[in-house]
Amino acid sequence: AVLATAAAQSECETFAHVCPMTLGEPAVLPAQNDATDIQLNAGESQYFTVAAPKTADFVLSMTVYFGDPDLYLTIDGSAPSPQSAAYSSIARGERDVLRVPAADLASCAGATCTINIDVVGYATSLYRLVATSENGFTELADGVPARDSVSATEYNYFKFTVPATDADASALTIVVTPLSGDPDLVVSHCVQPCADKRPTQQVHEWQSQAWGGDTITIPETSHSTEHDTTYFIGVYGYGNATTFTVVAQLDANVALADGQPQEGSVLAHGARYYHLFTAGAADKSITVSVTPQQGDVSLYVTSQTSGAPTNVPGPHNFKWSSTDNWFSPETVVIRPGDDGFLAEAGQYNIEVLGTTDAEYSIVAHSEGAVVGLRDGIPQTASVGPGQYLYFEFHVDDPAQDIAIDVTPLNGDPDVFIDCTLQATGDATGTPSRETGHFKWKSENWGHDSVLVPHDDPAGSCSATATGPNGGTFYIAVLGFSNSTFTILGSMNDGRPTLLVDGSPQQGTVIAGSYKLYEFEVGAAAREMTITLTPIFGDPDLYVNTEGRVASRTEYTYRSQFSRGKDFVFIEASDMCTSCFVSIAVYGYQTASFTITATSSDALRTLQDGVSVRDFVQHNEYEYFQFNVPEGGHTLEITCTVVSGDPDLYVSHTEHHPTSETPDTIAALHYGDDRVVVDNAEEGKWYIGVRGWTNTSFTLVAHVRSGAGEAMQRLVVGQPQTGAVAPGGFAYYQLIVNDFPRALTFTGTPFEGAISLYVNFCGGPEDGNRRWDECDGGRADGNDADRRPRENPDSHAIENFVWASSHSLSRESVRITLGSQHVCSQCSYVIGVHGDGVGTSSFSLTASTTDDLVLLQAGVPFRDYVEQGQHEYFVFSLHDEHSDVVISVTPFTGDPDVYVSACGTLADGTASVCNDRPTNTSYQWAHRAYGADTLAIPWAADGACVPSAEASCDFYIGVYGYTASSFTIMAYLHDVRPVQLVDGVPQSGAVNQSVSEQYILLVEPGHTDIEITLTPRFGDADLYVLTSDGNDPSRDRIPGPNVYDYRSIHATGDDHVHIGVDDDNNNCRSVNVPCRVHIAVHGYRPSQFTIVATSSHAATTLQAGVPLRDTVPANSYEYFVFTADVAATVITIALTPISGDPDVYVSTAALTRTPTSTA
């Protein structure tokens, strides 16, 4: 189809030349060659008249291809106009609809009513106009969608005729696209001449009752080759009133209305064709987006001017294409200046090519158009800084609550909602950020969610609507920065939200209720992973693959871990095909969360600054993608190990980067891996995580763009690794709904030194704002900047409430319920400050007294437990035949350790899970005075058996026999080293003739290193290798035959001193961090404490545990001791073994290095 050429208009342009219409058929304009797709210039009018029966409602509906035409109507025979009309519809962004009740028509004189219509061009427009009586049929044109509404349990009828001359042409496809509610589709047919039919759910020839869109394909063998064949189409309102579009397609391409979504389906290697008319605008871009509901498609677009031959797009003929997103949305943006861009009237032709069998939703829109949202179907979009994008969400049932959720993939979009629309594209319009220009808003840093109850005191857009057309919510999304996001409109009507393969979707669930999702699976069986990451609260996950709605009682898979680890893995052999997987998120507590369903074919999409947890098997890869919205900034990708050893591969060109692909950046360190790309190019970046062993990990991608950049989000109990430059800050955010008994932020420095500063946003002292009303640290002048920062003049740190310099350790902040400024329904902003001489790497964890902390294998975590209380942890194991060691090292007090396991037992049955072991309910325990080291053999009674698909989870309770400050660590008996923190003691155990491996990372710069091994019993020896990373042969495993330094005393401590100028010291680089490899070898079975300290750090002392050290003449060695109980007498005893040492003590927070004069 192409646009008709406009002729000089005389008919229809004035009321004196009104054009007649026929019920059920589109209006025609003789001046445009009897066109049914009618052009209208801005500021002009076109007049029509139609006779309607008085016994049924009259409906006038308009399909708007582009522009903004308005409708004005009279029923008394008078001339309609904007100043004189009994009924009008001036909505922009949706099809204008006018419904006249039969009760109003009853007053008309005569047997019928003469209804006069004035169509006014608010902007240059192209439209189709159809008048129907509620009991009549609407004639459909080939490829032209008709939008309509139907009441609950009622039918609206349409018909489509296949001429006998076209009977051999092709199959007939009928598609119903729901915009709200759940329409069902029934079809019957007859060969002319015949009486009209009205198919029902009970009497029909073809039927589709899918939850969501409905498609019926009728083979060409059903068409008569001798007479015309008429298909009668009924759309039924299932459950509630519903708004929908219906299209019948035989030979023509489907016409897309500007901004209106259209359901579609395509077979593998098949194609569907669409076109979008445009009036032409030299400065307005065009966006075409396809969102797969299942399967994978590619997108190709061409253009043609009005009247030109059809330019059919395809893989070998296109101007624009999007083919690389692998089961994810494909988007094409056509910008002014592009070759083929239409500055004049014409059309864009679109091919959706099926890479596999696929079902999808397609929408094309011009810049500034209003994009329609489908109930429960997410739509992907992008917006620039300071720009507004407009959406509409139609609600038929005034009794329904609605939710608008915006999930940022990067950047920071904000949301404003109103019942009226003035789409100016800036703050002068409605909705916008300006006061009085919105009814509801969310300006949270990160995801935005707005819930509008049907009885909201602010007034719901649907609450005052009459008739089955309901009301429309208009949504403006403002780009605080360059942002890519998904937007979802949904009603609380029990209908599930569709999950797009690999795309995150944020949501909220109330305590004790469900939020339902579904994932459509095609004919091919594929593995599937469903991951639930809480933002706050405690949601649980239930999955049903057997055709039932998932719930706490109807599930085939479930995951109920406390915060941070709710995911379900389904093997391909267990997955249903050609089905819908039902997913229920249950609110154990009121919770906000992100949920992602990813098949083995898709790339999981990462959100900027939001960590995701996943698992990869030995020698396998898991793949992710991340969009950089604007080039020239630094891209950081961090992989944090939970257990195992991942390797990280990143590419801008290779969709599945590996160790062998070109243009790939690799990070292959043992433990955490990090890739930093300076001046990263705009567009998609692809990430592969390979399992060197069976590996559990978290992954986060973040764009550092300077002031105002997005903060990384913390998940309670889940560690997040990072790095910070000297004197700089790395920023994080934690959202809290209900404040717990205590909240702790713990930083563990791996290399260098850090300190923590914390501020808050929300609560009584901050205008009683909720967390979703907080800017969360913005520096745009509209709200106070909540980020801790350094004063450029005094260099003092300011803009914080809590600091680790005031806490028990330099790297933690503990906030208790009685603390000043404590808030609920708010967010905390955490600044990690780099105190080292070089880049400092660290792990940061937010934990509460109510939640489990996820332990990283071989990484110590520092915490505090009150007397008679428990602190809880979890360690996940995926490696079979692995012994687990749990070590608790006290600094003060006496903690004890209790452990239970949860998973599959050796006989294949499930263990009884106890995720809160106590001193009275546990499987294993260690209750020594002082340090506790508990080894659990893989074959121990009650031990679960891990696998690649299902972990064995060890739940750990640390009980405060007295109030205790401690570190806890879980690790495996293998060659992978345990991480030592500079200056922090770590307890351990070793068997005879066996070695335990440790590693210390020391920041660049000349430094001495002291390593002290203090046995509790037995005899262990010390072997050390040093490496600056320049010589890979130096990164070996030390032992009795491989070492640079050793200490093998038969009794007492073993001590190694590495001098900065020693010949054996290979850590002399001032630019590269030093890696100190340490083996503790059991000459006899031994339990011990080991501490390694560089001259950059102070050694942490344990209460009541002596530490042996040396100090050169006229020099200082520094130590730190934390007192966690008020009014405690502290005694520091220095026992010289040789020489004459002196001791100096400071309690001032800022005096970390006391001397004889300070």
UniProtKB/TrEMBL annotation:
Keyword Transport on entry: no
Keywords: Glycoprotein, Secreted, Signal
Superkingdom of the source species: Eukaryota
Secreted in keyword set: yes
GO cellular component, one term: extracellular region
Gene3D superfamilies: 2.60.120.380
Protein localization: Secreted
Name of the featured protein: Peptidase C-terminal archaeal/bacterial domain-containing protein
Gene source species: Bicosoecida sp. CB-2014
